[in-house]
Amino acid sequence: MFIEDEELRTLYKVSSTEHIDTIELGLIQLEKFPHDPSPLNALLRGTHSLKGDSRMLGVQEAEAIVHQMEDVLSAVNAGQQPVTPQLCDRLYKGLDAVRKIAKEATTGEPSGISTFHIMALLMGAEEEASTAPMETAFPLALDPTLEESLADLEELFSIPESSNPGASYGEPAALVHFRQDLLPSEPEAKPLLIENALQPEPLPAETFQLDTLRVESAKLDTLMTQADELAVTKRQIAYRLEDLAELVSLWEDWNREIGTQALEAKETTTSQPFYQQTTQRLAHMGQRLQQLQSTTADDTARLETVAYELENGIRNLRMLPLSSIFNLFPRMVRDLGQQQAKIINFVIEGDNLLADKRILETIKDPLTHLLRNAIDHGLETPLERRAAHKAEAATLRLRGVQRGSQICLEISDDGRGLDLNAIRKTAIRRGLHTEAELTHMSSAQIQALIFAPGFSTRDTVTEISGRGMGLDVVRANVERLKGEVQVESVPGQGCTFCLTLSTNLASTQALIVAVHQTPYALSLEAIETLQMVPREAIFSLEGSLTIQWQGKPVSVAWLSDLLDLPMDSPLSPRAIYTQAKLIPCVILRQGANYLGVLVDALLDQQQIVVKPHSKLLSHIRNIAGASILASGEVCMVLSPQDLFKSVGAGLLPTGIHSSAESVHRAPKILLVEDSIPIRTQMKRILEGAGYEVTAAVDGLDGFDKLQTSTFDAMVSDVEMPNLTGLELTRQVRECAAYDKLPIVLVTTLAQAEDQRRGADAGANAYITKGDFDQSLLLNTLRRLIASC
Q1: What is the pTM of this model?
Q2: For residue 286, how many other CB atoms are within 10 A of its CB?
């Protein structure tokens, strides 16, 4: 069985390797210290986790073998089975088989393992055979429990008759071969030893190699920031080369001057020794300066090469294919299409492009919202499409496109498109704009109004697209990634959303401008062009400063005004404006909107590392962060999105800002699961259903996270280190604040007694992973949250 999903395949490869290594170490300890409960407990936890991971990802052969190993270890734990070298041999062989099967699941390389034989071996069939007399007539009388277990195996591995012509219908090929090995070829022949049939073939030795190394993403983030800092330091050192060049030039001038004075001093015998000594010292200093200049230039060149390779190497470690998130959507689109009785041809393109891990994590929810919105609002039913002379099947396309240093994610459909009249009416009804203002707006500007907070042309919220969340949330998430979102629509023909994102989140190319002799940085990605504006070209239009650019009016504003800098300074733009003939203007672009920012001077272009605000400064308007320039100066980094909002020339009218209070938040779920593959899969399921998910790695971590935020429900595993799911549930119920919190336990423990213990601990629902159905989990959560 090969795991198709690349991310889950990688996670299972890492987790199964860790669990198998843990189990192997535990077996060694158990064999050495058979009466010590510690290794046995560790073994039971390891097998339980490996079984759960295998079951969740459909690796059934590994699940079956590990389950049998778990039964053997449970018998040891209960005192029903002594620890013997033979028992450990059986467990080792079972573990070796699981390792092969896990490799098959992650590489596609056939394992060559007979699961039936391994299961029989673990049940003790080998020992039964080795103790049977040679002259015993076949079939051997096995232990009734073993015989019953083998019968269960026969049923488990049943296959149709066509796959083995020599077998009766429903009899497994492995079992048929097993019996044929045991049957004597002649009536008088002695029976074969059963262990010959049950002994698995020896596993070939493999070259030891660590294919993967798990690194916490936070550590990669730190390394990436340090690499960017190194790049900035490299440029600062380049400035020191210029300083050295100035020193060399100064020495040359000084040397010439001293040389001239030395010639004049030849006639004065008292001055001659001084000038000779000074000339020698200057020559020596000049030689050292030139050597220093040369070696510094070489060191800087080597540093530049190493820093570039290091930065690219670390950045590549964080890069993942777009398929990591694109592959989450086909099932969602299919289900939603069926729910709305719409036929949808979902096309994915460019999913092999690479993007930073943080981009993929942040952009998943916006993509989900836009796709659901397109299905609900944009695509028509087959009947409506026939009436519009369209094919019954609508086309919904998700495409990734690389454009220089940026990546564009496009969601397009051939549906009904945006209704401009409905947008105008909604804008007037919600007080966003007056009718007079709307008449002066272009179609692109009117379309952009859909990103205003809470904007919706529908009076009712649908389960599919609305759920209380507007497209302003999409825009906010994109802007957090230093990106922008644009929309283009043709009525009756379809709609396209384009999310443009920077591939480098830590550093950016920036234009350095000056106001009041203080530097400020603007990302080049937000700049359309630079130009020098004659002061007489600035005029007033409807109370706003305006210039003509490419034949159309563009609003302009002094950066000092936007930053609320004092206007009574002799360095203020007011003073400069009365003197300068040409004023530097930076024209910013956001979607279909443009804004001119007037500054005192254009200084430089540099790559900078943006340092985010501290929490104390997180709400400073128009400022995105800070940076240190190559010169060593501290520089504020401007937020282009905020600048648009400040002058009312962007997607939002002046004075209106999105706020958490104006947006109905998605229900928050605390997911507590120690298995990485299961945690990843469960997080996908919950987020795909519209929940905001916070993940915890064990019960103790879950309880800590529960106290730092407010949650609508908790979904937890039971068997976990540090604090089990049952213990976590009891602790939660002891807190008055969480008395009504819905708790759903999802575990492999499926006995009635296990479910009773879950209910006694305070869980509202108990779902077993063996019968796991995501619709059951989602329906249970929806019902429990609604009842609170």
Answers
A1: 0.47
A2: 16
